[in-house]
Amino acid sequence: MAASELAGQPILILKEGTKRARGREALHANITAARIIVEAVKSSLGPKGMDKMLVDSYGDVTITNDGATILDEMDVQHPAAKMMVEIAKTQDDEVGDGTTTAVILAGELLSKAEDLIEKGVHPTIIVDGYRRATEKALGYLRKIAVKVDPRKKDLLRRVATISMAGKILAEYKESMADLAVGAILQVGEKIPGGYEVDIDDVKVEKKAGESLTDTTFVKGIVIDKEVVHPGMRKRVENARIAILNCALEVEKTKIDAKINIEDPNQMKAFLDEEETTLKEMVDKITRTGAKVLICEKGIDDVAQHFLAKNGILAVRRVKQSDLEKIAKATGGKIATNIHDLRLSDLGFAKLVEERRVGEDKMTFIEGCKNPKSVTILVRGGTNRIVEEAERAIHDGLCVVRDVVQDPWVVAGGGAAEAEVARRLRKYAEKFAGKEQLAIVAFAEALESIPMILAENAGLEPIDIMVQLRAEHNRRHAWAGVEPFAGVVADMAKRNVYEPLAVKVQALKSASEAAGMILRIDDLIAASKTKEEKTPSKGLEEGAKEATSEL
Ligand code: ADP
Ligand code: MG
What percent of the chain has pLDDT over 70? Predict the structure, then answer.
């Protein structure tokens, strides 16, 4: 396949071993890969969705319901499957929720497209139809969305609760939603025409132990490190804080230097000198007026001793990201060198204290200069529980932020999708033939969301869809699937709201990805170079799998 013929003479264009799939074959392989991804995530959609247990190559186990995490851990190899994973990532980065929805939508758009291709519709017509449908759908979504007051805690709480439904902390979702709302409102800033929230201002720290109900909200920064020396103070009030990203150690010579010491006094002098250097470093810090030292690198035992003597509370090996948060929260500057440290670089907090949390000790920095720094300290029975709880809280924080920044919501439970689908069908009537088919296919793909919600709730999807369509035809735009009672119900009455931003993003990224995959008619995968020993399986492995499926 790697050669063409010209006047009987083969012309080698591609390297030997290159795999190539063309036309329908390539498209089919890509769509199949996307479908497999959808199959993997769809059972996790919605409040009745199931969790996945994923074991990585090191044997580490993750239990999750989060679409982005599932795909991330799956380590997929087919190029089209990788694109699906990217959709989830984009969705997570942009809006923080709706990852499963976005992936399902993309996969369904592709499945429907394949049905049309089999009926003889050319992919470009489908791509065009999908593009038109996307534009319209986005318009409809905006039309059915309702504007809300971003200062109303009640509504924010509901949105957060829905985003955490089906996650591990479902039982405690109300109190978790409260935490998320409190945190976002604390860090939100008023800007002309609305609010702005930097999600990074909310630190989520986790520690196994106790239970999920012991998760707390701390106005300040919590770092998962203890005070470095037992002789140090464990609590400093009105603390001036030095933030250092260099080590408090005497640098060891890089070259192997041999020092010949002939008499014991020389040995002492040598050690004394090291000690003096360390003492000078500590004195320098002490002179700035700092009572707390936060250090990204190590602190030598001798330096610890002097720090303790000077009444300084020190914490070492703090993560760089934490260092930045501490600097922002306390109004301090990160010093890269002890000699440059000035009083003006120090941060300030009303209280720095080491506290016991579970089995470990953590350092709390509270009453910071900048009140916009908060931490949610997640507790829970085991590491796996706190990790999944952290992911759920992340979703809660993100949706609250989404609504605070862009105060529009739509109905959940597949209601928004069903309504947009209904309107699209109507719009499709304006077109003739194949283009109409593409727009209708787009509408059907949207309906897969309520359908899967119903399926995951153990309901008969066809029955539910018939009811749902009937309700929407009767202009009940907020009719959606209520998975607990197993009925079609008014989502506003059930308090099932979702941020408009989440739905808009899901639609955009799903249709973009589907369009991109549909336009591919040639899959060329280079063969792995022989020298390469690393198991970096990429396009080639993927293509092999894909083509072998044909
Ligand atoms: P995603 O990763 O797409 O956010 P989720 O597993 O969080 O996937 O499921 C989200 C879907 O579940 C949304 O369509 C949402 O409207 C729906 N949902 C969540 N809670 C409820 C509820 N109480 N009633 C109806 N639908 C719900
Ligand atoms: Mg969700």
Answer: 91
How remote is the C-alpha of 172 from its chain's centroid? 21
Q: Looking at domain 18-146+412-525, which of 1.10.760.10, 3.50.50.60, 1.10.560.10, 3.20.20.70 is its CATH number?
A: 1.10.560.10
pLDDT digits (tens, 9 = 90+) for 265-291: 777 777 788 889 999 999 999 999 999
- Ligand 1 pocket mutation pick from 38, 43, 44, 45 by most atoms within 8 angstroms of CB: 45
Cα 27 from chain centroid (whole Å): 30
Please check whether residue 308 is in contact with residue 229, taking contact to mean a CB–CB distance below 8 angstroms.
yes
Q: Which ligand is nearest to the CA of 497?
A: 1
CATH number of 220-253+264-370: 3.50.7.10
What are 411's strand-pairing partners?
Answer: 497
Catalytic residue among 66, 92, 201, 402: 66
pTM (2 d.p.):
0.83
What are the tokens at 317? 């090996």
Does residue 162's CB lie within 6 angstroms of at least one atom of ligand 1? yes
**Distance (Å, rounded) from C-alpha 427 to C-alpha 436?**
9
Which of 527 and 96 is assigned the larger pLDDT? 96
Quick one: pLDDT band at residue 223, thresholds 50, 70, 90? very high
Could you state, in order of their start, the residue ranges of all structural domains in the chain?
Answer: 18-146+412-525, 149-214+378-406, 220-253+264-370
Assign 3-class secondary structure to 174-234.
HHHHHHHHHHHHHHCEEECCEEECCHHHEEEEEEEECCHHHCEEECEEEECCCCCCCCCCC
Instruction: Classify strands 374-380 and 146-147 as parallel, antiparallel or unpaired.
Output: unpaired
